[in-house]
Amino acid sequence: MKLATKAGALSLLVALGACTDAGRFGAGGDVPPGGFGTGAPIGAPPVTASPIDPSSPQYFNQTVGDRVLFAVDQSTISETGRQTLIGQAQWLMANPAYTAIIEGHADEQGTREYNLALGERRASAVRTFLVAQGVPAARLRTVTYGKERPIEVCSTEACYAKNRRAVTVIAAGPALS
Amino acid sequence: MTRLRSLLPLLLAALAVLSAPAAQAQGPLRIEITEGVIEPLPFAIPDFVAENAGAQDYASRISDVIAADLEGTGLFRRIPASAFVAPVTEFTPSVTYANWKAINAQALITGAVVAGEGGRLTVKFRLFDVFSEAPLGEGLQFGGSTDAWRRMAHKVADAVYSRITGEQGYFDSRVVFVSEAGPKNARQKRLAVMDYDGANVQYLTDSSAIVLAPRFSPTGDRVLYTSYETGFPQIYQLDVGTVSRVALPVPAETMTFAPRYAPDGRTVVFSASQNGNTDIYTLTPGSQPQRLTSAPSIETAPSFSPDGSQIVFESDRSGTQQLYIMPATGGEPRRISFGQGRYGTPVWSPRGDLIAFTKQNAGRFHIGVMRTDGSEERLLTASFLDEGPTWAPNGRVIMFTRESAGAGGQPALYSVDISGRNLRQVPTETAASDPAWSPLLP
């Protein structure tokens, strides 16, 4: 099972180009390093189309949706965010072997310390929501990155809107004590 | 003469308010910093005399560092050697004042360097008030190893600055900061320490984990900072001499950041986040962490008053970030910021009179200062992103981070007078952020 998941993960990486924060921060479990790139690695096998395993972290990231976005200086979960998080909760309850770290992020329009606190507030809002949906609290941890890890680098609202996010990063492993 | 005359009103004001009798007795050469100096005071500093062969390598470099320190304040202007009437080849107690009046040098700094046994260096200097035709203070000398030649130069510059302004200097000091490399979405950060002018950079950590916002201890031998080395933000203390670090015993299940020392150098104040709430705590060796705030809002960026009795911090309890002061043991905070916009990162001045802060308003960032009751707010800078002020040891200059906009945006260190004048970039070999000034070195 584990091997199959890994193989599936690899082919998906090639097919879709993983877009996950897990590889970047080394916080995730099963995602191979370098998974945040946009192209196929040199010498990669030919692309093969295969259905996404619904129990894979890749399915979670790409089909369920691994992130929710926030308004400026807010940690309130939007209606779109609620739908995403309901999907996340269902996936997590259906796949009890996985835990998750929820990363809270802010855009660069704020001071460093405040943004750390704001990122924590956002991550915590997501965790609270998931727990209310039935995900055991022990499987969810939070971390704030403040404005330290933007995913978009421009200095306009188009980028800021994507940077004000909480990302649920799936990891394999037992529940946290 | 006209230049000196124009200084006289400032001078009289200075004599009236300053309480350093030794300085008052020294004669009329004087800059009153608080009045703001528009016209820098012209000074001459002939290359220091190398009194033996071993001193040759250092003599002119030492006078250049002294001159750069003084010019860097914006209060002084160096007269080029090409204008000198006659060269200075000997370090003597008397000088030919006419030669220096002729080029309108108001201050003259002469000096000599002697290399001794075992890599020792001695730097001697004298300061003259040219238009009063009198020495300003006694001749002084500093001794140290040749490695410390820049420090000795800074000591001379501090003495000159102090004699002319009546204020303590700030040149013999260091700055701890975060050195940055790599693209904006995968920035690598390392702690580094350097002389206040950007020289002698030493790295204190590698870039394997994000590090943020280092702060010196009151004695300059330790640094507090935040690191992600466990994957989560946590506060650490690092010994600058041995470059060894320890994680501080923070409350369980929290993320911690924004640490800063109390003036006693033992107690640490910091923020801890848990369940969506960030509050301020103190930690004293041998005791459990003490929680000072308990509101459901964000309380962070604490900074002690120099007497240790109060803490200024930021909170969004009113709906936006604002500045508050509370007793050092906790208790009811008093809001001090009431202007337009958001206020954060307050830092108490080492003189106790002012609080520096970051202000966000109408899409711009500012560094500003206000009195401790919130009055007399003045904004010193404006840019796309200025943040994180730190005070020079004498409370006259502020250093901060300025970050440029866009995909290629980079942070750099800048300094500015509390008058708002003399904005300068501090030279660093890499992009740099989060400066924290040390005390004046012993």
What does this structure look like?
The complex is a heterodimer of chains A (177) and B (442). Chain A is of the alpha+beta class and 177 residues long. Chain A has a domain at 53-172: 2-Layer Sandwich (60s Ribosomal Protein L30, Chain: A), CATH 3.30.1330.60. In chain A, 41% of the residues lie in helices and 15% in strands. Chain A contains six helices and four strands. A four-stranded mixed β-sheet of chain A has the order 1-4-2-3. In chain A, strand 2 (98-105), helix 5 and strand 3 form a beta-alpha-beta unit. In chain A, helix 4 (79-94) crosses helix 5 (112-132). Chain B is mainly β. Chain B contains five helices and 31 strands. Chain B has helices at residues 2-17, 21-24, 56-72, 97-101, 149-165; strands at residues 41-44, 49-50, 76-78, 107-115, 120-129, 134-135, 140-145, 174-181, 188-195, 202-203, 211-216, 222-227, 234-239, 244-247, 255-261, 268-274, 277-283, 290-291, 299-304, 310-315, 322-327, 334-335, 342-348, 354-361, 364-371, 378-379, 386-391, 397-403, 411-417, 424-426, 431-437. In chain B, the strands form seven sheets. In chain B, strands 1, 2, 3, 4, 5, 6 and 7 form a seven-stranded mixed β-sheet that branches. A four-stranded antiparallel β-sheet of chain B has the order 10-9-8-31, with no helix packed on it. A four-stranded antiparallel β-sheet of chain B has the order 11-12-13-14, with no helix packed on it. The radius of gyration of chain B is 23 Å and the shape is globular. The two termini of chain B are 38 Å apart. Classes of the chains: A alpha+beta (177), B mainly beta (442). The interface between A and B is large, with 33 and 41 residues.
